[in-house]
Amino acid sequence: MRNCSNLTAIFKATIISGLTFCMLSLTSCDQKSEEKTVEKIDRKALVDRHDVILDAPDTLASLTVGNGEFAFTVDVSGLQTFYKEYENGVSLGTQTQWAWHAFPNPGDYDWNEILRNDTSATGQVISFPVQHKEGRKKEVTDYFRTSPHRLHLGIIGLELLKKNGEVAKLEDLKNINQRLGLWKGEIVSTYELEGSPISVTLYAHQEQDGVAFKIESPLVKAGRLKVKMNFPYGSGCHVCPGYDWEKQDRHSTELKELSTQEVLFERKLDSAAYFTQVAWSGDGSWDSPEKHKYYFTPDPSSETLEFSSFFTKKETKTNTPSFSATAESSKKGYEQFWNSGGAIDFSGSTDERAHELERRVVLSQYLTKVNCTGSLPPQETGLTMNSWYGKFHIEMHWWHGAHFPLWGRPELLEKSLPWYFDVLDKAKATAKRQGFEGARWQKMTDPYGDESPSSVAAYLIWQQPHILYFVEQLYAQDSSVALLEKYKELVYETADFMASFAQKSEETGKYHLIAPLIPAQELFPANATDDPPFELAYWHFGLTVALDWQKRLNESPNPKWQEVLDNIAPLPIKDGLYLPSSTHPNAYIDEFYLHDHPVVLGAYGMLPKTDMIDPEIMRNTLEKILEIWQWDTTWGWDYPMMAMNAARLDMPETALDAIFLGKQKNIYLPNGHNYQDKRLRIYLPGNGGLLTAVAMMAAGWEGAPDRPNPGFPDNGKWQVKWEGLKPMK
Q1: Cα(630)–Cα(636) distance, integer angstroms
Q2: Nearest-CA neighbor of 360 among 154, 669, 585, 122?
Q3: What are 536-569's pLDDT values in tens digits?
């Protein structure tokens, strides 16, 4: 069994280390000509060859089924039987977008107690919800960081009995074969216990929040197999499965019989509540040996059991979907998904890394569909496990979602955009409290738009233009007046904040982004950092979008937006390099500044070229960063970001080199997840970033060289065939 401390095999199998170059010969052109001249991709064959197949327990290779609103992650038993053994790997979650819990507030803590005032260079007093380290304010900080948190809805596993009556352990399972069938969203797990075969087939429903599975084994008939359900309390841990088994008296579970083959569990945790509706085939009985733990013993007259478990926020009167109905929903939903939007095929390539790149791309599509297509922006670990208490980070929404429109699936991004309307009033209240106009979007937040206290997150600004980027992506595929009207409030409120946040220098006449702020390279101090280059370029991009929005609606341009756009400060430069901040001229000399995100590259990578960018200076900056950066401090999305930067600089071999850079944060596990470290074992922004970079390199971007697949080198060893992708701005 492999755990998160044993990654050598994965590293060697999935990463080719060093700055080596990928070589490609190119076959596809723009989408229209491709459809006429290039054979259509066999999408099922493309997807099927990357099914995940396991033949041994691997705590970093848990498999997940889900639908964007709900996900269920399992071990090699096919369910969540050995959840304790998987806690330090990719833990076994049962999570939804709607299930959240807050601890009681016995101290009558008030969020306003943790506000701290900072003063900008212009004398403006700005309050931020920061972390406090002692006294009552620490208690308040801890409360609002941990509450609310995302709930783990419950463990569904098996109790397998050996011939001597002992409960089987993970190591007792033999002849394991587990397959995640991507085309159907199906997990089939087969294994043996003391020579007796067991087969578990699992699906997640695509319209409702639940799973169904079929078990086939002589152990059912022998009375040596039970289904166990265990319901936990909410957990306030930082990165963890999201459950707490210790506080048995702080929640309640009530079992209600609905029929001879259906029961309802009513769950109450302080002010939170939800329901679990369960149905099964044949006869069977329930018993509860202890609080919140239930065992279902199936009818011994058969070797087959079908079992369904569905979760709802409110009690429902509808019947629980059967195994066959759930299987049909999954098969239909996934077939529609894989046949929609874009696909890219590297199977004709002779480069030894082609299969690995294709594997990462296919699995990243599956994982982002399961975890990142719901009604809320995703947390960084999606619906698989909790990170940052289950809360989501809005600056990461770009990495989770910007790829969907590029892959021809804009509707999957758009599912999460109503949240911005839901929390708009709170974003406007933040801007007003701080003395700005418009809406200042939250950073570390929750479904209700409340901002968590943080001495870093509260100062970040690079999430502000994201909504402008997203709606511009939607407009590229739907240039209707209806879409302009639908999102113009978000566009205008965002632009109002951005224009008021930029401060004019009377000396230069330029508008600057000034302290207190923290850039995307988060190591810089809030009160001593001005004009980070990525944020300057993003301000330029965002205000341009807002003014274009007005033009498309035949409205007069906002004079404040136009003035700031026309006079935005230039990107800071020293010694022919773009500095990460105008107030840190020694950033490439002092080793302290050579870690975290090299996000200066995002100014011409994530973002298109403008007159703000000098390609030669940006090329020098990229080459310097590749030479001196402390790679162990990076994050998974830094590698596709570098690839996008290199592609725009017409350095396609370096772009591929960045994608395959052999560093720990660039590992992709057997299940497709982007591994970071022992604390953060999965990281979906890396998966989303990879999809963005690959789509861009194939389909091109605004101002790309006039050749097929402009982000890939044309030197004969790769065959790149794609369809349905969209160019990037």
Answers
A1: 14
A2: 669
A3: 999 999 999 999 999 999 999 999 999 999 999 9
The beta strand positions in 325-479, using DSSP E, are 343-345, 386-387, 392-393, 444-445
CA–CA dist 22, 2 (Å, integer):
30
Q: Token pair for residue 91? A: 């833990």
Beta carbons of 636 and 664 less than 8 angstroms apart: no
Concatenating the DSSP letter of every residue in 618-643 gives HHHHHHHHHHH--GGG--TTHHHHHH
Contact 386, 703 (CB under 8 A): no
Q: 453 — alpha (psi -120 to 50), left (phi > 0) or beta?
A: beta
Neighbour count for residue 535 (Cβ, 10 Å)? 26
* Residue written as token pair 């008030």: 110
Distances in Å between the alpha carbon of 193 and those of 83, 161, 166, 225?
18, 9, 12, 11
Amino acid at 453: P
Q: b/e for 582-614, b at 16 or more Cβ within 10 A? A: bbbeebbeeeebbebbbbbbbbbbbbbbeebbb
Q: What is the pTM of this model?
A: 0.95
- In whole angstroms, what is the distance from residue 722 CA to residue 724 CA? 7
Name residue 510's amino acid: K
Question: How is the chain split among helix, strand and coil, in percent rounded to 5?
Answer: 35, 25, 45
Alpha-carbon distance 687 to 368, whole Å? 7
C-beta of residue 722 within 8 angstroms of C-beta of residue 357: no
Instruction: Check residue 6 and give its pLDDT.
Output: 47
Give, in order, the Cα–Cα distances in Å from 713 to each of 342, 719, 725. 21, 11, 19
User: Which strand (E) or helix (H) includes residue 264?
Assistant: strand 262-269
Q: Tokens 């511009």 correspond to what residue?
A: 472
- Give the C-alpha separation, 597 to 617, whole Å: 19
Q: Is the pLDDT of residue 2 over 90?
A: no
Confidence at 313, pLDDT banded by 50, 70, 90? very high
From its phi and psi, is residue 237 left (phi > 0), alpha (psi between -120 and 50) or beta?
beta
Q: Helices in 15-171 by DSSP H: which ranges?
A: 31-37, 43-48, 135-146
Instruction: State residue 41's pLDDT score.
Output: 96
Taking only Cα atoms into account, the Rg of the chain, rounded to an integer number of angstroms, comes to 26
Q: DSSP readout, 204-229? A: E-SSSSEEEEEEE-HHHHTT-EEEEE
Greatest Cα pair distance, the chain, in angstroms, is 88
Residue identified by tokens 């406007």 is 428
- The predicted structure's pLDDT at residue 12: 44
CB 498 within 8 A of CB 462: no
CA angle, corner 231, sides to 226 and 233, nearest 5?
Answer: 160
Q: Which two three-digit tokens encode residue 435? A: 């003395």
* 19 — pLDDT class (breaks 50, 70, 90): very low
Instruction: Report helix angle 354-372 to 684-699, nearest 10.
Output: 120
pLDDT value of residue 666:
98
CA angle 675, 49, 647 (to 5 degrees): 55
CA quadruple 520, 522, 527, 530: dihedral sign: negative
The model's confidence at residue 1, banded by pLDDT at 50, 70 and 90, is: low
Instruction: Give Cβ neighbours of residue 311 (< 8 Å, ≥ 6 apart).
Output: 70, 94, 96, 99, 153, 209, 210, 274, 275, 276, 277
Q: Is the pLDDT of residue 24 over 90?
A: no
Instruction: Name the β-bridge partners of 116.
Output: 128
Beta-bridge mates of residue 118: 126
Q: Strand 674-675 vs strand 667-668: parallel, antiparallel, or unpaired?
A: antiparallel
The Cα-based distances of 206 to 68, 186, 334, 555, 702 in angstroms read: 9, 12, 9, 42, 36
State the DSSP H helix or E strand holding residue 386, giving kind and residue range, or none if neither.
strand 386-387
Q: Please state the rounded mean pLDDT for residues 391-419.
A: 98
How many residues in total does the chain contain? 729
Amino acid at 603: A
Alpha-carbon distance of 442 to 450, in angstroms, equals: 8
